[in-house]
Protein backbone atom coordinates (compact mmCIF):
# COMPACT_ATOMS: atom_id res chain seq x y z
CA UNK A 1 0.00 0.00 0.00
CA UNK A 2 2.81 2.41 0.86
CA UNK A 3 4.41 1.74 -2.51
CA UNK A 4 1.13 2.52 -4.31
CA UNK A 5 0.70 5.77 -2.36
CA UNK A 6 4.21 6.83 -3.32
CA UNK A 7 3.47 6.16 -6.97
CA UNK A 8 0.31 8.30 -6.99
CA UNK A 9 1.60 11.05 -4.70
CA UNK A 10 1.59 14.35 -6.67
CA UNK A 11 5.09 15.63 -7.28
CA UNK A 12 5.77 18.97 -5.54
CA UNK A 13 7.58 21.27 -7.94
CA UNK A 14 10.26 23.64 -6.80
CA UNK A 15 9.81 27.39 -7.33
CA UNK A 16 12.18 27.40 -10.29
CA UNK A 17 10.44 24.41 -11.88
CA UNK A 18 7.02 26.02 -11.51
CA UNK A 19 8.32 29.23 -13.03
CA UNK A 20 9.68 27.56 -16.18
CA UNK A 21 6.84 25.09 -16.64
CA UNK A 22 5.06 25.61 -19.95
CA UNK A 23 1.77 24.90 -18.21
CA UNK A 24 2.14 27.90 -15.89
CA UNK A 25 0.19 30.59 -17.76
CA UNK A 26 -0.41 33.04 -14.91
CA UNK A 27 1.44 36.32 -14.54
CA UNK A 28 4.23 36.14 -11.98
CA UNK A 29 4.30 39.05 -9.55
CA UNK A 30 7.77 40.58 -9.36
CA UNK A 31 9.05 40.57 -5.79
CA UNK A 32 9.85 43.77 -3.94
CA UNK A 33 13.49 42.74 -3.59
CA UNK A 34 14.04 42.72 -7.34
CA UNK A 35 15.55 46.21 -7.53
CA UNK A 36 16.76 45.82 -11.10
CA UNK A 37 13.20 45.41 -12.34
CA UNK A 38 12.00 48.40 -10.34
CA UNK A 39 14.93 50.69 -11.07
CA UNK A 40 15.71 50.39 -14.74
CA UNK A 41 17.88 53.51 -15.03
CA UNK A 42 19.95 52.56 -18.06
CA UNK A 43 19.44 54.93 -21.02
CA UNK A 44 16.45 56.63 -19.37
CA UNK A 45 15.35 59.75 -21.26
CA UNK A 46 12.83 62.45 -20.52
CA UNK A 47 9.29 61.68 -21.77
CA UNK A 48 8.71 62.75 -25.36
CA UNK A 49 5.23 63.84 -24.32
CA UNK A 50 5.37 65.24 -20.75
CA UNK A 51 2.37 64.28 -18.65
CA UNK A 52 0.08 67.12 -17.49
CA UNK A 53 -0.44 67.43 -13.72
CA UNK A 54 -3.37 65.46 -12.27
CA UNK A 55 -4.29 66.23 -8.66
CA UNK A 56 -5.51 63.50 -6.31
CA UNK A 57 -8.84 65.30 -5.94
CA UNK A 58 -9.44 65.37 -9.70
CA UNK A 59 -8.37 61.73 -10.09
CA UNK A 60 -10.75 60.57 -7.36
CA UNK A 61 -13.69 62.21 -9.19
CA UNK A 62 -13.19 60.15 -12.33
CA UNK A 63 -15.78 57.45 -12.89
CA UNK A 64 -17.64 55.52 -15.54
CA UNK A 65 -19.61 57.64 -18.03
CA UNK A 66 -21.40 56.31 -21.08
CA UNK A 67 -22.25 58.22 -24.24
CA UNK A 68 -25.48 56.73 -25.66
CA UNK A 69 -25.14 55.85 -29.36
CA UNK A 70 -26.96 58.39 -31.52
CA UNK A 71 -26.15 57.63 -35.14
CA UNK A 72 -26.02 54.35 -37.02
CA UNK A 73 -22.21 54.53 -36.96
CA UNK A 74 -22.29 55.04 -33.19
CA UNK A 75 -24.40 51.93 -32.76
CA UNK A 76 -22.11 49.84 -34.97
CA UNK A 77 -19.04 51.04 -33.05
CA UNK A 78 -20.66 50.39 -29.68
CA UNK A 79 -21.91 46.90 -30.50
CA UNK A 80 -18.57 45.83 -31.97
CA UNK A 81 -16.80 47.10 -28.87
CA UNK A 82 -19.31 45.28 -26.65
CA UNK A 83 -18.77 42.05 -28.56
CA UNK A 84 -14.99 42.18 -28.11
CA UNK A 85 -15.30 43.18 -24.47
CA UNK A 86 -17.70 40.39 -23.57
CA UNK A 87 -15.68 37.80 -25.47
CA UNK A 88 -12.47 38.83 -23.72
CA UNK A 89 -14.20 38.81 -20.31
CA UNK A 90 -15.61 35.33 -20.91
CA UNK A 91 -12.27 33.85 -21.93
CA UNK A 92 -10.27 35.49 -19.14
CA UNK A 93 -12.82 34.98 -16.37
CA UNK A 94 -13.83 38.55 -15.56
CA UNK A 95 -17.19 40.05 -14.61
CA UNK A 96 -18.17 43.66 -14.13
CA UNK A 97 -19.68 44.26 -10.71
CA UNK A 98 -22.07 47.02 -9.68
CA UNK A 99 -22.53 46.28 -5.97
CA UNK A 100 -20.46 44.80 -3.11
CA UNK A 101 -22.90 41.89 -3.01
CA UNK A 102 -22.09 41.00 -6.62
CA UNK A 103 -18.36 41.16 -5.88
CA UNK A 104 -18.77 38.91 -2.84
CA UNK A 105 -20.65 36.33 -4.90
CA UNK A 106 -17.62 35.91 -7.17
CA UNK A 107 -15.30 34.77 -4.37
CA UNK A 108 -14.15 31.20 -4.97
CA UNK A 109 -15.30 31.18 -8.62
CA UNK A 110 -13.26 31.52 -11.81
CA UNK A 111 -14.33 35.18 -11.84
CA UNK A 112 -12.59 36.07 -8.60
CA UNK A 113 -9.84 38.57 -9.40
CA UNK A 114 -6.40 38.02 -7.88
CA UNK A 115 -3.29 40.17 -8.19
CA UNK A 116 -1.93 37.91 -10.94
CA UNK A 117 -5.20 38.01 -12.89
CA UNK A 118 -5.38 41.79 -12.63
CA UNK A 119 -1.85 42.16 -13.96
CA UNK A 120 -2.54 39.75 -16.82
CA UNK A 121 -5.63 41.74 -17.74
CA UNK A 122 -4.12 45.21 -17.65
CA UNK A 123 -0.93 44.15 -19.44
CA UNK A 124 -2.92 42.67 -22.31
CA UNK A 125 -5.33 45.62 -22.50
CA UNK A 126 -2.55 48.21 -22.50
CA UNK A 127 -0.66 46.32 -25.21
CA UNK A 128 -3.73 46.73 -27.44
CA UNK A 129 -4.67 50.24 -26.27
CA UNK A 130 -1.48 51.74 -27.69
CA UNK A 131 -2.42 50.73 -31.24
CA UNK A 132 -5.23 53.18 -32.25
CA UNK A 133 -3.35 56.41 -31.52
CA UNK A 134 -0.19 55.29 -33.30
CA UNK A 135 -2.06 53.97 -36.34
CA UNK A 136 -4.32 57.03 -36.64
CA UNK A 137 -1.38 59.38 -36.15
CA UNK A 138 0.62 57.52 -38.82
CA UNK A 139 -2.22 57.72 -41.34
CA UNK A 140 -2.77 61.42 -40.72
CA UNK A 141 0.98 61.99 -40.93
CA UNK A 142 1.05 60.42 -44.40
CA UNK A 143 -2.06 62.39 -45.34
CA UNK A 144 -0.32 65.64 -44.37
CA UNK A 145 2.79 64.74 -46.37
CA UNK A 146 0.83 63.60 -49.40
CA UNK A 147 -1.41 66.67 -49.61
CA UNK A 148 1.31 69.15 -48.59
CA UNK A 149 -0.86 70.69 -45.88
CA UNK A 150 -1.06 71.07 -42.10
CA UNK A 151 -2.84 68.49 -39.99
CA UNK A 152 -4.23 71.02 -37.48
CA UNK A 153 -2.57 69.25 -34.53
CA UNK A 154 -4.42 65.92 -34.58
CA UNK A 155 -1.15 64.02 -35.06
CA UNK A 156 0.41 65.29 -31.82
CA UNK A 157 -2.58 64.34 -29.67
CA UNK A 158 -2.90 60.91 -31.26
CA UNK A 159 0.78 60.10 -30.80
CA UNK A 160 0.63 61.43 -27.24
CA UNK A 161 -2.23 58.99 -26.57
CA UNK A 162 -0.22 56.08 -28.00
CA UNK A 163 2.82 57.11 -25.95
CA UNK A 164 0.71 57.35 -22.79
CA UNK A 165 -0.74 53.87 -23.28
CA UNK A 166 2.74 52.47 -23.84
CA UNK A 167 3.89 54.07 -20.59
CA UNK A 168 1.05 52.25 -18.84
CA UNK A 169 2.31 48.98 -20.30
CA UNK A 170 5.97 49.68 -19.43
CA UNK A 171 4.90 50.43 -15.87
CA UNK A 172 2.87 47.25 -15.44
CA UNK A 173 5.55 44.94 -16.80
CA UNK A 174 7.80 46.22 -14.02
CA UNK A 175 5.25 44.73 -11.61
CA UNK A 176 4.43 41.43 -13.28
CA UNK A 177 6.11 39.03 -15.67
CA UNK A 178 3.50 37.73 -18.15
CA UNK A 179 3.58 34.09 -19.20
CA UNK A 180 4.40 32.75 -22.64
CA UNK A 181 0.67 32.29 -23.24
CA UNK A 182 -0.13 35.95 -22.53
CA UNK A 183 2.78 37.06 -24.72
CA UNK A 184 1.52 34.84 -27.56
CA UNK A 185 -1.97 36.30 -27.34
CA UNK A 186 -0.49 39.82 -27.36
CA UNK A 187 1.39 39.01 -30.58
CA UNK A 188 -1.73 37.70 -32.29
CA UNK A 189 -4.03 40.39 -30.89
CA UNK A 190 -1.80 43.22 -32.03
CA UNK A 191 -1.33 41.72 -35.49
CA UNK A 192 -5.06 41.38 -36.09
CA UNK A 193 -6.21 44.60 -34.42
CA UNK A 194 -3.50 46.82 -35.92
CA UNK A 195 -4.26 45.81 -39.51
CA UNK A 196 -8.03 45.98 -39.07
CA UNK A 197 -7.86 49.39 -37.42
CA UNK A 198 -5.58 50.66 -40.22
CA UNK A 199 -8.09 49.65 -42.89
CA UNK A 200 -11.11 50.95 -41.00
CA UNK A 201 -9.40 54.28 -40.26
CA UNK A 202 -8.70 54.76 -43.96
CA UNK A 203 -12.38 54.11 -44.68
CA UNK A 204 -14.04 55.96 -41.79
CA UNK A 205 -12.01 57.82 -39.11
CA UNK A 206 -15.18 58.94 -37.29
CA UNK A 207 -16.25 55.33 -36.75
CA UNK A 208 -12.80 54.47 -35.40
CA UNK A 209 -12.65 57.37 -32.93
CA UNK A 210 -16.12 56.50 -31.64
CA UNK A 211 -15.05 52.87 -31.25
CA UNK A 212 -11.99 53.95 -29.24
CA UNK A 213 -14.17 56.29 -27.16
CA UNK A 214 -16.38 53.36 -26.17
CA UNK A 215 -13.31 51.19 -25.59
CA UNK A 216 -11.94 53.80 -23.19
CA UNK A 217 -15.27 53.90 -21.36
CA UNK A 218 -14.76 50.24 -20.56
CA UNK A 219 -11.16 50.86 -19.56
CA UNK A 220 -12.37 53.43 -17.02
CA UNK A 221 -14.92 50.90 -15.78
CA UNK A 222 -12.22 48.22 -15.37
CA UNK A 223 -9.83 50.50 -13.50
CA UNK A 224 -12.67 51.76 -11.30
CA UNK A 225 -13.32 48.14 -10.31
CA UNK A 226 -9.61 47.76 -9.52
CA UNK A 227 -9.58 50.95 -7.43
CA UNK A 228 -12.57 49.70 -5.46
CA UNK A 229 -10.87 46.38 -4.69
CA UNK A 230 -7.72 48.21 -3.61
CA UNK A 231 -9.75 50.50 -1.36
CA UNK A 232 -11.48 47.51 0.24
CA UNK A 233 -8.15 45.75 0.89
CA UNK A 234 -8.93 42.74 -1.31
CA UNK A 235 -5.52 42.76 -2.99
CA UNK A 236 -2.95 42.74 -0.17
CA UNK A 237 0.02 42.00 -2.44
CA UNK A 238 -0.57 45.28 -4.26
CA UNK A 239 -0.51 47.14 -0.94
CA UNK A 240 3.14 46.08 -0.62
CA UNK A 241 4.00 46.96 -4.20
CA UNK A 242 6.52 49.68 -4.85
CA UNK A 243 5.68 52.13 -7.65
CA UNK A 244 8.27 51.58 -10.42
CA UNK A 245 10.84 54.27 -11.12
CA UNK A 246 9.57 54.67 -14.69
CA UNK A 247 6.16 55.70 -13.32
CA UNK A 248 7.67 58.19 -10.86
CA UNK A 249 9.57 59.78 -13.74
CA UNK A 250 6.45 60.02 -15.94
CA UNK A 251 3.59 61.10 -13.66
CA UNK A 252 4.52 64.42 -11.97
CA UNK A 253 2.66 63.73 -8.71
CA UNK A 254 4.05 60.24 -8.04
CA UNK A 255 6.97 59.72 -5.68
CA UNK A 256 8.76 56.66 -4.35
CA UNK A 257 6.37 56.79 -1.39
CA UNK A 258 3.26 56.67 -3.60
CA UNK A 259 1.00 53.65 -3.38
CA UNK A 260 -0.16 51.29 -6.09
CA UNK A 261 -3.61 52.86 -5.71
CA UNK A 262 -2.14 56.31 -6.46
CA UNK A 263 -0.73 54.85 -9.67
CA UNK A 264 -4.01 53.23 -10.74
CA UNK A 265 -5.90 56.47 -10.09
CA UNK A 266 -3.68 58.20 -12.65
CA UNK A 267 -3.92 55.39 -15.15
CA UNK A 268 -7.71 55.57 -14.85
CA UNK A 269 -7.61 59.36 -15.30
CA UNK A 270 -5.52 58.89 -18.46
CA UNK A 271 -8.08 56.48 -19.87
CA UNK A 272 -10.85 58.95 -19.03
CA UNK A 273 -8.96 61.62 -20.95
CA UNK A 274 -8.64 59.32 -23.96
CA UNK A 275 -12.38 58.68 -23.68
CA UNK A 276 -13.06 62.42 -23.79
CA UNK A 277 -10.62 63.07 -26.65
CA UNK A 278 -11.85 60.28 -28.93
CA UNK A 279 -15.54 60.99 -28.41
CA UNK A 280 -14.79 64.64 -29.21
CA UNK A 281 -12.75 63.85 -32.33
CA UNK A 282 -15.58 61.59 -33.50
CA UNK A 283 -17.87 64.64 -33.36
CA UNK A 284 -15.60 66.68 -35.64
CA UNK A 285 -14.82 66.68 -39.33
CA UNK A 286 -11.32 65.54 -40.23
CA UNK A 287 -10.51 69.08 -41.45
CA UNK A 288 -11.42 70.71 -38.10
CA UNK A 289 -8.67 71.78 -35.73
CA UNK A 290 -7.88 69.66 -32.70
CA UNK A 291 -9.33 71.64 -29.75
CA UNK A 292 -7.11 69.83 -27.23
CA UNK A 293 -3.89 71.09 -28.82
CA UNK A 294 -4.50 74.80 -28.16
CA UNK A 295 -6.74 76.17 -25.43
CA UNK A 296 -8.85 79.08 -26.71
CA UNK A 297 -10.36 81.45 -24.17
CA UNK A 298 -13.97 82.48 -24.59
CA UNK A 299 -17.34 82.75 -22.93
CA UNK A 300 -17.84 78.99 -23.02
CA UNK A 301 -15.59 76.39 -21.33
CA UNK A 302 -13.20 74.72 -23.74
CA UNK A 303 -11.21 71.44 -23.70
CA UNK A 304 -7.83 71.25 -21.98
CA UNK A 305 -5.20 68.60 -21.39
CA UNK A 306 -5.84 68.44 -17.65
CA UNK A 307 -8.87 67.33 -15.65
CA UNK A 308 -10.20 70.67 -14.43
CA UNK A 309 -12.60 70.86 -17.36
CA UNK A 310 -13.57 67.32 -18.25
CA UNK A 311 -16.46 65.87 -20.25
CA UNK A 312 -16.44 62.10 -20.30
CA UNK A 313 -19.02 61.91 -23.09
CA UNK A 314 -17.02 64.22 -25.33
CA UNK A 315 -17.55 67.77 -26.55
CA UNK A 316 -20.18 68.54 -29.17
CA UNK A 317 -18.98 70.46 -32.19
CA UNK A 318 -21.29 73.40 -31.56
CA UNK A 319 -19.70 73.95 -28.13
CA UNK A 320 -16.19 74.38 -29.53
CA UNK A 321 -14.24 77.30 -30.95
CA UNK A 322 -12.93 75.76 -34.14
Please describe what this structure looks like.
The protein has 13 helices and two strands; from the N terminus they run H-H-E-H-H-H-H-H-H-E-H-H-H-H-H. The protein has a single domain, classed as Alternative oxidase (Ferritin), CATH 1.20.1260.140. With 322 residues, it is mostly helical. The relative contact order is 0.15. The protein has helices at 2-8, 15-20, 35-38, 56-61, 72-92, 100-105, 115-147, 154-172, 180-203, 205-231, 236-239, 245-250, 260-282; strands at 28-29, 176-177. Helix 5 (72-92) packs across helix 10 and helix 10 (205-231) packs antiparallel against helix 13.
pLDDT under 50 segments (min length 5)? 1-20
Structural class: mainly alpha
CATH architecture: Up-down Bundle
Counting structural domains, the number is 1
Main CATH class: Mainly Alpha
Strand content: under 5%
If you consult CATH, what is the topology?
Ferritin
Major sheet details: 2 strands, antiparallel
Shape: globular
Q: In sequence order, what are the helices and strands, one letter per element?
A: HHEHHHHHHEHHHHH
| Tally of helical segments | 13
The rounded distance between the terminal residues' Cα atoms is: 84 Å
User: Superfamily at the CATH H level?
Assistant: Alternative oxidase
Average pLDDT score: 88
In percent, how helical is the residue content? 55-70%
Number of strands: 2
Q: How many whole angstroms does the radius of gyration measure? A: 22 Å
Strand order of the largest sheet: 1-2
